[in-house]
Amino acid sequence: MPVMTTATGGPRVQEQHTITVLVDNKPGVLARVSGLFARRGYNIESLAVSITENPAISRMTIVVAGDTDVLEQITKQLHKLIDTLKVVDYLDTPMLERELALVKVTAEPGQRAELMQLIEIFRGRVIDVAEKTFVVEVTGSGDKIDAFEKQMESFGVRELVRTGRIAMMRGPRTV
């Protein structure tokens, strides 16, 4: 975990927060939400936005590192935005999380068997085959995607795209 120093010299622990924000599905809402983080000096590490089962509502999943006190203030300010319907910080909440990555990797004929074994170990799927490349789709936790990316480095990663984290509470509760 990153550690910052407080004004009194003591350590301030920065935890990674996954925040879900349900908002009205209208133009400009994303800009207002991301602007709130920017004004506070926080970098959004991951942001995924889509409509929900109700087309009038969008769900934002935001990953940001920060100490609990400041993130609590941001959460309160998110509640005050006119288009915000609900805000949940998953810090102490059991959740399911996933990311999707598409990885274009060099796939020389002599390496394809080894490459396919690694793809299978990570439960990935080859979605495109060209003369010298594969495009692989892999889903899972951020750590799994990181590990897959590291394994692909020796083959030669030509291009990588990640969706960012999406999250949902475990069990019957909903956001």
Residue windows where pLDDT falls under 50 for at least 5 positions: 1-8
> From the helix content, strand content and strand pairing, which structural class follows?
alpha+beta
H-E order: EEEHEEHEEHEEHEE
What is the tally of helical segments? 4
Commentary on this structure:
With 175 residues, this protein is an alpha+beta fold. It folds into two domains: 3-93, ACT domain (Alpha-Beta Plaits), CATH 3.30.70.260; 96-168, ACT-like. Chain A, domain 2 (Alpha-Beta Plaits). The protein is 26% helix and 43% strand. It is built from four helices and eleven strands. It has helices spanning 29-39, 68-80, 112-121, 142-152; strands spanning 3-5, 11-13, 15-24, 44-51, 57-66, 84-89, 95-106, 125-129, 133-140, 157-162, 166-169. Strands 7, 8, 9, 10 and 11 form a five-stranded antiparallel beta sheet that branches. The longest helix has 13 residues, at 68-80. The protein is elongated and about 60 Å long.
Describe how the helices and strands are arranged.
Elements: E1 3-5, E2 11-13, E3 15-24, H1 29-39, E4 44-51, E5 57-66, H2 68-80, E6 84-89, E7 95-106, H3 112-121, E8 125-129, E9 133-140, H4 142-152, E10 157-162, E11 166-169
